[in-house]
Model the fold of this input.
Amino acid sequence: MNAILLAVAIVAGIGLIAGLGLAVASILMAVPKDEKAEAVLKLLPGANCGACGYSGCSGYAAALAKGEAKAGLCSPGGEAVAQEVARVLGVEAGLVEKKTAIVRCMGSYDNTSDRMEYQGIASCAAAAQLYGGAGACSYGCIGFGDCASVCEYDAIQICNGVARVNAADCRACSQCVTACPKHLISLVPAKPQAVVRCRNCDKGGEARKACAAACIGCMRCVKACEVGAVSVKQFNAVVDPQKCTACGKCAEACPQGCIDMLL
Done:
């Protein structure tokens, strides 16, 4: 009996000493908190989306506290958060450019078809591993909604087989951009502008065969644009949102109807 009690006492003593050692170490080795960064972090939405260019909200808050970042980089927070952050830091908030996500695909069931029957996991990331998905267009939206599942603002829906973004609800957190295995989603300024809803880079005949609304690189949009905002690279048209005046002439000239006007 005495041996058991002795053993228990020894173990308890070791535990007590170890506990005291850890407590002392936590005090001596504690990393001092930046109160300014903590105050800024409380103002941020906590989306940890990385749209600001930093490693989540804590990384952005730390950069703000050190004066290494601007106050208006949080897209989900918008102007309201930028103003509050600027007030805490004692700096100018500056202008916050509102952005929205767009999906560069019009491969709905009306414009394209499947080239094979897919029976795997209902995930765009999984289906993309099998010859780029079941669709006839290997560049197009797979339609399983990986982007919609990561959107915390319910701004994305799958409509007739293609993802669509509601610009009014989008907070430009970029989660959908990361989730899309086809890289069809990008962030653009939320302003009136022309948008090319296609990423097909095949030659005209092949692109049209895969999808009735595919860009065929015909250059008509380039010729119609009077400000040089449209260019064609690898048989695919691209609009520079900084140059676009939203005149709509490129959309009118597009024979495929794959250019439309945002907002």
